Amino acid sequence: MLAALATPLALLFLLTLLGLIRLWWKRGEGRRRVLGAAVPFLLAYLLSTPPASYLALHSLEQHYPPSEEVPANAEAIVV
Fold first, then answer.
1. Rounded Cα distance, 70 and 19, in Å
2. What is the pLDDT of residue 55?
3. How far apart are CA 27 and CA 23, in angstroms?
4. Distance between CA 50 and CA 53 in Å, rounded?
5. In sequence order, which residues have a C-beta less than 8 Å from that of residue 42 and are 6 or more positions away?
6. What are phi and psi of 26, to 5 degrees?
7. Is 60 exposed, middle or buried (0-12, 13-18, 19+ CB in 10 A)?
8. Contacts for 21 with CB less than 8 Å, ≥ 6 apart
9. Which of 34, 40, 53 is nearest to 13 (CA)?
10. Which of 25, 29, 31, 73 is surrounded by the fewest CB atoms within 10 Å?
11. Sign (positive or negative) of CA dihedral 13, 15, 21, 24
């Protein structure tokens, strides 16, 4: 669990979330200003989840079905 939180993306999201909470709690900023910062944060979070990545990859991979044949003289696999 702690290893998953140590990734740069997770740390960035955590720091941004803490900053948004502090902005709303301490400074008494208006809800419109906090929402203006929270909406891009939530959008970035949703786009980084596995379902969003699956949909993005599926839109690229659907045109190229996996090949069933393996070349006999292949010396390397290039990805």
1. 53
2. 92
3. 6
4. 5
5. none
6. -85, -45
7. exposed
8. none
9. 40
10. 73
11. negative
Please say whether the beta carbons of 77 and 71 come within 8 A. Answer: no
Q: Measured between alpha carbons, how far is 44 from 15 in angstroms, rounded to an integer?
A: 14
Distances (CA, A) of 70 to 26, 65, 76: 62, 14, 12
Tell me which residue has tokens 């070349």. Answer: 71
Pick the closest to residue 4 from 48, 39, 44, 36 (CA basis). Answer: 48
Kindly indicate the confidence band of residue 1, based on its pLDDT and cuts at 50, 70 and 90. low
- Please tell me the predicted confidence (pLDDT) of residue 70: 77
pTM for this predicted structure? 0.57
pLDDT tens per residue across span 8-46: 888 888 888 888 888 777 766 677 777 788 888 888 888
